[in-house]
Amino acid sequence: MKSISVFCGSSSGTDKEFQTTASELGRKLASENIGLVYGGAKVGLMGAVANGALERSGTVIGVLPVFLKAKEIAHDGLTELILVETLHERKTRMNDLSDGVIALPGGFGTLEEYFEMLTWGQLGLHEKPMGILNINGYYDELISFLDSMVQKGLLKESNREMILISDNIDDLLVRMRAYKAPQGGKWIRKENL
User: Fold this and answer.
1) Domains along the chain?
2) pLDDT (tens digit, 9 = 90+) per residue, 122-178?
3) Is the Cα torsion angle 180, 186, 191, 193 positive or negative in sign?
């Protein structure tokens, strides 16, 4: 993997481990020469993961909608800051720039971004590994819900297995490198678009 998109909160949350681990992830990506692609902000967990990568001289590309830059949250020390018009354009650009995705703790935006890219994978539009770094059990209830979706027949087990989950950065990166996407997509293939 040459680069990974990281989706995470623009807030730091109440658990100090979230910020510590976000910084650690940034440092780890940089030390393994994996570029970081993220939302471009200097605040919260987003700022922590970017700063961690920058501490180790990593490549950090931020993709930020113009309306958020106007709120003065843009990180000014990045390798590159790409300004886009819409949130959808942000996700599309982040997808184009990365070979995989990791979700850290976050709110609605983090979940929306992660699940849209996951859905693109389910539909066969990409074959990138989709990881969740489950810091201090933050995503435990979500994981239980996903398992319930399988049990109730609304999510195929093969699609549930697309979500790579670990509470350990090294383990998650190993699993992402070994990932093989389910074949066949749900309905469509990228070449049909």
Assistant:
1) 3-176 (3.40.50.450)
2) 999 999 999 999 999 999 999 999 999 999 999 999 999 999 999 999 999 999 999
3) negative
